[in-house]
Write a structure and sequence with these properties.
This protein has 330 residues and is α+β, with helices and mostly antiparallel strands. It contains twelve helices and 13 strands.
Length: 330
């Protein structure tokens, strides 16, 4: 179906669920039963629900990911946070089982014994220690469970994205099914989202063409927009560099994790290139809104491939680029 033909089905704010189904829009129940429940073995969930396990798995498989400075598992270790940090001036502290960007502390510099946050606010080592203590207590984790604090190298995002994101690091979410990258969007933080790349909090979602890596649509709060609300940059001029490497990295996460239906979050470091930030075994539905396209036709096309398990990563990426590109249809 041509891109504009699809758009005609969304002239009204509210759509009939049967019309959405006809357009290939996947609902949450269908995702949970037919794809997550069918293709994701529950014993593998901890590999992605726990960022420390994801990090170790990525390092074991030589997948490019931010370097792990250290991890803190107890309040006793939290007292030694300054020693663990050593001479590191730039780093990120995050909960291993956090979600939605909660509990992430980004430090961009040091002033003597004090630390400088991304916002420019100066905090003390006591503030760092208290934040780690809150992470361990489960303040930011799923279900309030006791957690682990991770300390990672700070990502320096590629300057090609200057003006496309407010404070936070822009990332690329790619849905990978059976090793095929099927749909992609960039998540750009805003003042409304408090620098977090969370669409539900007001971040911008930009649909990305699988074939070209170019923007096809942009939304905020599920409504189409053309310019970034804070920087006024034209979102339709966005193009992800190193696109083939990004797709290859995303596709390789299937072999690494064993999960058949996952969301891969990838960032572009100006020096180290595409890096895996994290994996999600229950990726959300908003990516369809950002692309103005449904996931179901793409997923079913892959399910119909009897030889899909024998294809290499390169072959799966090539198949995806051939069949799931939308830019040339606009």
């Amino acid at each position: 179906m041509a891109f504009f033909d699809f758009c005609k089905g969304f002239t009204n704010k509210y759509a009939n669920p049967f019309e959405l189904y006809e357009y290939g829009i996947m609902g949450m129940n269908q995702r949970n039963v037919n794809y997550i429940g069918r293709y994701n073995k529950r014993r593998l969930y901890p590999l992605v629900d726990n960022k420390l396990k994801t990090k170790k798995m990525a390092l074991e498989h030589n997948v490019n990911t931010p370097n792990l400075i250290g991890s803190i598992k107890s309040q006793v270790e939290a007292e030694n946070i300054v020693k663990i940090l050593g001479e590191h001036k730039e780093f990120c502290i995050k909960p291993a089982q956090g979600s939605g960007g909660k509990g992430i502390l980004v430090i961009t510099g040091r002033e003597g014994k004090a630390f400088v946050k991304a916002s420019g606010q100066v905090i003390s080592s006591h503030d760092i220690r208290r934040h780690v203590s809150n992470i361990l207590a489960g303040l930011f984790s799923l279900g309030g469970k006791q957690d682990i604090a991770l300390i990672e190298d700070l990502i320096h995002f590629d300057p090609v994205f200057n003006g496309y994101s407010y404070e936070g690091v822009p990332d690329t979410r790619i849905i990978v099914f059976q090793g095929f990258p099927v749909m992609s969007m960039m998540r750009l933080s805003t003042a409304a989202s408090d620098g977090k790349a969370n669409l539900h909090q007001g971040a911008v979602g930009v649909g990305i063409c699988i074939r070209t890596g170019r923007a096809v649509r942009a939304v905020q709060y599920n409504e189409p927009i053309k310019f970034h609300p804070d920087t006024n940059n034209d979102l339709y001029s966005l193009r992800v560099p190193h696109w083939d490497k990004v797709l290859h990295l995303a596709a390789s996460c299937y072999n690494m994790s064993g999960l058949g239906y996952i969301g891969t979050d990838i960032v572009l470091d100006k020096d180290k290139g595409p890096m895996l930030l994290e994996l999600n075994a229950r990726p959300g539905m908003a990516i369809q809104t950002a692309n103005n396209a449904g996931l179901l036709p793409r997923l079913r096309l892959i399910e119909a491939l009897t030889q899909r398990q024998s294809l290499s990563i390169e072959q799966k990426v090539a198949f995806a680029k051939k069949h799931f590109g939308v830019y040339d249809e606009m």
